[in-house]
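Blinded run. Sample ID left blank on purpose so nobody reads anything into the name before looking at the predicted structure. Input follows.
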Amino acid sequence: MSTETSSAKRLRQRGSSSATVRVLRYAGVAALLVSAVVHGVLAPSYGASQPGLNLGKQFVAQAILTAAVAVWLLLRDTPLVWLVGALVMAGTAGALIVAHGPGIPQIGPMPGVREQIWDGPQLVTLVAELLFVLLAVTRALIGWRRR
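Blinded prediction complete.
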C-alpha cells in the first residue's frame, strides 16, 4: 500500500507534466530552427538575390517566419504559437512533398517547381517539419492549464 498522499502525488504528476512540456517545447524550437537554417542556407542557390519573385525569396521568407515562431515558442507556450508553427511546418512539408510528386505549377510570376530527386537538406527539413507537427499534436493532447 502506498503511503504517498494525494497532494504529493499531484505534485509529482505536475512536475512530470511540466518536464514533458519543456521537452516538447525545446524539441519544437529545435525542429523550427533546423528548418529555418536549412532554408536560409539554401536560399541563395534558389535565386534569392535575383530580381523578382522566386523560390529563393520564398526560402528567405520561410526562414525568417520559422525562426520568429521558434523564438515565440521559446518565450511562450500557448496553443496559438503551436498552431502557427504547425501550419507553417505542415505547409512547408506539403510543398516539398508535392514538388517531388506532381510538381507545383506556375502561379503568377512564380515559376513552377518539380523536384526529381530527394537530397540531404530536403530530407532533413522534411523530418524536422513532420516532427514539429507531431510535437504540436502531442502538446495539444497534453492540454494547457488556465492561468
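Unblinding after everyone has recorded impressions. Helices lie at 6-42, 55-75, 79-100, 120-142.
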